[in-house]
Amino acid sequence: MECLIYRKAKLDVLTDAEIKRLVKKILARFKCLNKSLSVQFVSERKIRELNRKYRGVDKVTDVLSFGLGGEDLGDIFLCYPQIKRQAKHYQVTAKEEMARMLAHGILHLLGFEHRKKDEKRRVLLLQEELIRDFL
Protein backbone atom coordinates (compact mmCIF):
# COMPACT_ATOMS: atom_id res chain seq x y z
CA MET A 1 0.00 0.00 0.00
CA GLU A 2 1.24 3.44 -0.88
CA CYS A 3 -0.43 6.59 0.40
CA LEU A 4 1.00 9.89 -0.78
CA ILE A 5 0.03 12.90 1.32
CA TYR A 6 0.13 16.48 0.06
CA ARG A 7 -0.51 19.37 2.41
CA LYS A 8 -1.30 22.44 0.36
CA ALA A 9 -3.34 23.92 3.20
CA LYS A 10 -2.83 24.13 6.94
CA LEU A 11 -3.93 21.02 8.82
CA ASP A 12 -3.26 20.21 12.44
CA VAL A 13 -5.74 17.46 13.28
CA LEU A 14 -4.32 14.29 11.70
CA THR A 15 -0.66 13.37 11.40
CA ASP A 16 0.69 11.60 8.34
CA ALA A 17 1.05 8.44 10.45
CA GLU A 18 -2.63 8.60 11.50
CA ILE A 19 -3.75 9.15 7.91
CA LYS A 20 -1.73 6.18 6.70
CA ARG A 21 -3.02 4.01 9.56
CA LEU A 22 -6.64 4.77 8.66
CA VAL A 23 -6.01 4.28 4.93
CA LYS A 24 -4.33 0.94 5.62
CA LYS A 25 -7.18 -0.18 7.89
CA ILE A 26 -9.79 0.58 5.23
CA LEU A 27 -7.85 -0.93 2.34
CA ALA A 28 -7.19 -4.07 4.41
CA ARG A 29 -10.92 -4.37 5.14
CA PHE A 30 -11.57 -4.53 1.40
CA LYS A 31 -8.51 -6.65 0.60
CA CYS A 32 -6.91 -3.83 -1.40
CA LEU A 33 -3.55 -3.46 0.33
CA ASN A 34 -1.80 -3.68 -3.04
CA LYS A 35 -3.43 -0.41 -4.12
CA SER A 36 -2.17 3.16 -3.80
CA LEU A 37 -3.85 6.53 -3.47
CA SER A 38 -3.09 10.14 -2.73
CA VAL A 39 -4.60 12.36 -0.06
CA GLN A 40 -4.42 16.08 -0.69
CA PHE A 41 -5.40 18.84 1.71
CA VAL A 42 -6.45 21.90 -0.21
CA SER A 43 -7.86 25.36 0.36
CA GLU A 44 -11.49 26.37 -0.02
CA ARG A 45 -10.61 28.13 -3.26
CA LYS A 46 -9.03 24.99 -4.73
CA ILE A 47 -11.81 22.59 -3.71
CA ARG A 48 -14.42 25.00 -5.06
CA GLU A 49 -12.51 25.18 -8.34
CA LEU A 50 -12.34 21.36 -8.56
CA ASN A 51 -16.01 21.02 -7.63
CA ARG A 52 -17.03 23.54 -10.30
CA LYS A 53 -14.78 22.05 -12.98
CA TYR A 54 -15.58 18.36 -12.47
CA ARG A 55 -19.04 18.33 -10.92
CA GLY A 56 -20.55 21.57 -12.19
CA VAL A 57 -21.21 22.71 -8.62
CA ASP A 58 -19.86 26.18 -7.82
CA LYS A 59 -19.42 25.86 -4.06
CA VAL A 60 -17.00 24.67 -1.39
CA THR A 61 -17.33 21.03 -0.37
CA ASP A 62 -15.67 18.79 2.21
CA VAL A 63 -14.22 15.95 0.14
CA LEU A 64 -13.84 15.08 -3.52
CA SER A 65 -12.61 11.73 -4.84
CA PHE A 66 -11.31 11.08 -8.33
CA GLY A 67 -10.92 7.41 -9.14
CA LEU A 68 -8.34 6.09 -11.55
CA GLY A 69 -8.79 2.33 -11.31
CA GLY A 70 -6.17 -0.37 -11.42
CA GLU A 71 -3.33 -0.33 -8.90
CA ASP A 72 -3.74 3.42 -8.33
CA LEU A 73 -7.16 3.96 -6.78
CA GLY A 74 -7.00 7.70 -7.35
CA ASP A 75 -6.92 10.99 -5.47
CA ILE A 76 -8.82 12.35 -2.49
CA PHE A 77 -9.05 16.10 -1.92
CA LEU A 78 -10.03 17.30 1.56
CA CYS A 79 -10.88 20.86 2.56
CA TYR A 80 -9.96 21.39 6.21
CA PRO A 81 -11.79 24.73 6.70
CA GLN A 82 -15.06 23.16 5.49
CA ILE A 83 -14.52 20.02 7.55
CA LYS A 84 -13.79 22.15 10.62
CA ARG A 85 -17.12 24.00 10.13
CA GLN A 86 -18.94 20.68 9.77
CA ALA A 87 -17.33 19.36 12.95
CA LYS A 88 -18.66 22.37 14.85
CA HIS A 89 -22.11 21.93 13.29
CA TYR A 90 -22.25 18.20 14.16
CA GLN A 91 -20.64 18.83 17.56
CA VAL A 92 -17.73 16.47 17.01
CA THR A 93 -13.99 17.11 16.99
CA ALA A 94 -12.27 18.26 13.83
CA LYS A 95 -10.16 15.10 14.02
CA GLU A 96 -13.25 12.89 14.04
CA GLU A 97 -14.85 14.72 11.12
CA MET A 98 -11.59 14.63 9.15
CA ALA A 99 -11.30 10.87 9.70
CA ARG A 100 -14.93 10.49 8.64
CA MET A 101 -14.41 12.46 5.41
CA LEU A 102 -11.18 10.58 4.62
CA ALA A 103 -13.04 7.27 5.05
CA HIS A 104 -15.87 8.63 2.88
CA GLY A 105 -13.42 9.59 0.14
CA ILE A 106 -11.76 6.18 0.21
CA LEU A 107 -15.14 4.45 -0.04
CA HIS A 108 -15.85 6.45 -3.20
CA LEU A 109 -12.51 5.35 -4.68
CA LEU A 110 -13.48 1.75 -3.88
CA GLY A 111 -16.68 2.16 -5.90
CA PHE A 112 -19.25 2.99 -3.24
CA GLU A 113 -21.78 5.60 -4.34
CA HIS A 114 -24.74 7.27 -2.65
CA ARG A 115 -26.98 8.59 -5.35
CA LYS A 116 -30.00 6.72 -3.96
CA LYS A 117 -31.33 6.88 -0.41
CA ASP A 118 -30.53 3.23 0.42
CA GLU A 119 -27.00 3.62 -0.99
CA LYS A 120 -26.43 6.75 1.11
CA ARG A 121 -27.49 4.96 4.29
CA ARG A 122 -25.15 2.05 3.51
CA VAL A 123 -22.16 4.34 2.84
CA LEU A 124 -22.78 6.40 5.99
CA LEU A 125 -23.06 3.29 8.18
CA LEU A 126 -19.93 1.83 6.63
CA GLN A 127 -17.88 4.99 7.12
CA GLU A 128 -18.94 5.13 10.78
CA GLU A 129 -17.93 1.50 11.25
CA LEU A 130 -14.55 2.16 9.66
CA ILE A 131 -13.65 5.11 11.91
CA ARG A 132 -15.12 3.67 15.12
CA ASP A 133 -11.92 1.99 16.31
CA PHE A 134 -9.66 4.63 14.78
CA LEU A 135 -10.61 7.43 17.16
Q: What is the count of helical runs?
A: 5
- Anisotropy-based shape: globular
Low-confidence stretches: none
Return the average pLDDT rounded to an integer: 91
Portion of residues within helices: 40-55%
The assigned structural class equals: alpha/beta
C-alpha-based Rg, rounded: 14 Å
Largest sheet: 4 strands, mixed
Give the DSSP E fraction (strand runs of 2 or more residues). 15-25%
How many strand segments? Answer: 4
Widest beta sheet: strand line-up:
1-2-4-3
Distance between the termini: 21 Å
The ordered H/E elements are EHEHEEHHH
Describe this structure as you would to a colleague.
By secondary structure, the protein is an alpha/beta fold. It contains five helices and four strands. The protein has a four-stranded mixed β-sheet with strand order 1-2-4-3. α1 links the parallel β1 and β2. The longest helix has 16 residues. The chain is globular, with a radius of gyration of 14 Å. It starts with a strand and ends with a helix.
